[in-house]
Amino acid sequence: MSSAQKKVRLESNSFAMAHTFHTKKFKPGPGPTNADNTPGRFRSAFIRSQTSHNRCIDDVRDQSVEEGSCERRIQKAFQEGPTFTAEKFEALPDSAPMAILKDMLLSDYRHLYQHKKARRQYALKEADQTLYDQIESLCTDRIEFIENLISAGPRTAQPTRPAQPEPLGLPSPILDENDGAPGDTRLFSPADCRDVLKNSFGLAKFLPKQLDVILEAFTACDLLVIFPTGAGKSLSFQLPAVLMNEKFNMITVVVSPLIAIIQDQEMALREKGIKVMSFCSGDGHVRPRFDQNIKPALLYVTPERIQKSPAFMDELRTLHRSKHLARFIVDEAHCVAPVDDFRDAYAELGACLRKNFPDIPISAFTATASPTAAQLITKSLNMVNPRVFRRSTARPNLRYSALPTRSDECFETIAELITERGLEDDTGIVYCFRRDRCEALALFLRKKGVSAKHYHAEMTDQEKAAVYKTWKHGICKVIVATVAFGMGVNHSDVRFVLHCDPPRSLDNYLQESGRAGRDGQPAECVIFYNPRALRRELAEIPGRDSRAVKALRQVANYCDETLVCRSRQLLAHCGESTAAGKLCGACDNCVSPKRAYDLTADIQQFVSLLECIQKKSGNPITALQTIDVFIGRNTKWIRVRGYDQVKGYAAGRHIGLELAKIMITRLIFWGILGEYRILRHDIGAHYYLRIERDLAKFKGGRSLQIGLADNREDSTVETGRGKSKSKGIDRRRQRSLSTLTDQAFLNADYVPSSDSESED
């Protein structure tokens, strides 16, 4: 059997075994036909299926198949049209088992999946690129049809709740001018709230908008509260819970994502003498018992406890029937709609609460939520006409920086920043993406004389609690952690938050960097990033337009942008506007202004050149190979392929090698260009360029500029590639490091935060 015939047989077997593999992967477990079989559950399963589908499509791209064989198979797979039609969806019973829904979904594109044991890596033939585009187009159309069908709404009616807020228990409105005189029938007055603030929480006054949120919590309306870290989110739901408990013996249930957050808040409340209980997913089958006469003000739980504990749900229903259930609080609500799947229990939380407790209001609290994320939160939690309270995410005491750094120098650069700037005696957090890097960096810092410990999800609860305790009490100064550490951390004097690896989204970055400077004093927030590594990550994520790709592109653009104030970038992400021309005066872009290079014409010529090359030969081409043609290098490789005769050859000779590399990286981060990986059995993996977005639509009449320092050492066409391989990024890193001086920070236009009197 020839090699080509083997490839055809392998390809045929891969598609034939697809349905067995995918059905086994998403086989539903046993259990009662209840909330697990709702359309909401199906929507979550569909999203996971779509992710796997995109990954398999990328695998198809890397296969080499006999010309025409795959095309016939694709036509056969789609010749009968979609089986998952609107009519069939509406005809299903309300409690249709998940197995039926999944089979209907998978039957539409089962031939596009490959058995995991049959996967092999081959080169993609040049003639197969058109076929790959056809496959992706067919699948995208089918997925959009199913997704639109599901998003049109569930087949069963949702519990109705009052559109207008009503007081809980008593009909009279809460008016600020009422002072509790005899005959006053409203629930609580602002004076009542201030008394609890002083007597129970030991605070003198409310922070901006805190009292508004607290008073609204005494109505039956849903709330979405978006306050930055340090703005008093926790107090905004804890104080109403105390009042409702004191007067009506009611319990407020707080759903929190991490046991560490629950333990931290529970300990702080107990120290204040506030009645509180917690039941987490790791408590086994412990059944909560509530005293008939004395009930806790707050009950902290993980989402898994609500989803997977029938005994706990029975207790909540008992509280509901006896009218002792006040409100559900979803803390760190951004976890409900993350970029990647955080936890299924969070995605299904809204459907579960609304089904079992349709008349109990829900409050969602988060420190960061872009307009899109806010919509996802309210939709996922099935909130009805929620009242939205938002405060600006601006943190004027935080100084943001982003340093391009080679991966092999990142540890050394972080150690230099901490030791040379005198931060070794300050409290700080360093975030890493992988657990092994956490341990390695913590060990490296200890060798450099920095008191550091690691923290990640593979540690036991006892180990994590011990590390957190030593850090909070100042025994350990620096904690090196994954994203498992961050949400809900209440430590006021964190002076720096560093990211050894870029965060996965700007929402995550706002959460993690927000741990710094909660006392209102200056603090540093620095991201160390490798542009090349970010490009590779973007190429490896399945789905060109997936939420994960879009989120990482936003992070990449934030890091690589050198002209726009970083605070303004973060505010724009959150949907906030700043005064025209107003800068923070503290970030690296404001302290060290860059020279703007208008590359609009060069970018247009580069994209046109890439189009010409691909039309001329059809061969894949790498970024560096395209740059060589663009800047006019006279090499044998270019002459043999005739690229020196292509229109646009040497059009970028005047900008040089370094600026051309920066330009192409920015085009990838903007999403105009993309890279894809091809695995060849003889030379390994290579990444090739393709055009992913129409340049004219992206540009929209504006100029495309890139900022570089005025003292940039321009590389010319004669510069050897080996000589300039790392000098550019090293110069940029050194210039960025030189701006991180106390003097530059103190000279910045810094306005201390006034929101430091209350705790989060």
- What is the overall number of helices? 31
Total number of distinct structural domains? 4
Unreliable spans: 3-87, 92-129, 149-160, 162-185, 712-726, 739-760
Strand content: 5-15%
What is Rg? 29 Å
* Distance between the first and last residues' Cα: 69 Å
Total strands? 17
- In CATH's first tier, which class of the largest domain applies? Alpha Beta
Structural class: alpha/beta
Largest sheet: 7 strands, parallel
Strand order of the largest sheet: 3-4-2-5-6-1-7
Helix fraction by DSSP (H/I, runs of at least 4) = 40-55%
Kindly report the CATH topology of the largest domain: Rossmann fold
* CATH-defined superfamily of the largest domain: P-loop containing nucleotide triphosphate hydrolases
State the CATH architecture of the largest domain: 3-Layer(aba) Sandwich
